[in-house]
């Protein structure tokens, strides 16, 4: 996995991908990052139950 920090319209974002050749990386800013961290246990549960 590759994580890159960059900017979008003057705001820092993080872009996550499965590698340099990933055609569909996704990115999000600080507000969504905080939302993810606040719900990390639910996300882990979702992943575990979806395997």
**Structural class by secondary-structure content:** alpha+beta
Q: Write down the domain tally.
A: 1
Percent in helix:
25-40%
Q: What's the number of extended β-strand segments?
A: 3
Summarize the biggest pleated sheet: 3 strands, antiparallel
Features of the shown structure:
51 residues; 3-stranded antiparallel β-sheet; 3 strands; flat
Q: What are the SSEs and their pairings?
A:
Elements (H helix, E strand, L loop, with lengths): L1 E7 L2 E7 L8 E4 H9 L1 H11 L1
What does the model show?
This protein has 51 residues and is of the alpha+beta class. It has one domain (2-50). It is built from 2 helices and 3 strands, in the order βββαα. The chain has helices spanning 30-38, 40-50, and strands at residues 2-8, 11-17, 26-29. The protein has a 3-stranded antiparallel sheet with strand order 1-2-3. A hairpin with an 8-residue loop joins strand 2 and strand 3. The longest helix is centred in the last third of the chain and has 11 residues, at 40-50. The chain is flat and about 35 Å long. The model has no long low-confidence stretch (mean pLDDT 96).
């Amino acid at each position: 996995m590759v994580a890159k920090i960059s900017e979008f319209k003057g705001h820092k974002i993080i872009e996550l991908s499965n590698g340099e050749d990933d055609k569909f990386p996704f990115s999000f800013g600080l507000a969504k990052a905080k939302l993810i961290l606040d719900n990390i246990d639910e996300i882990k549960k979702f992943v575990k139950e979806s395997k």
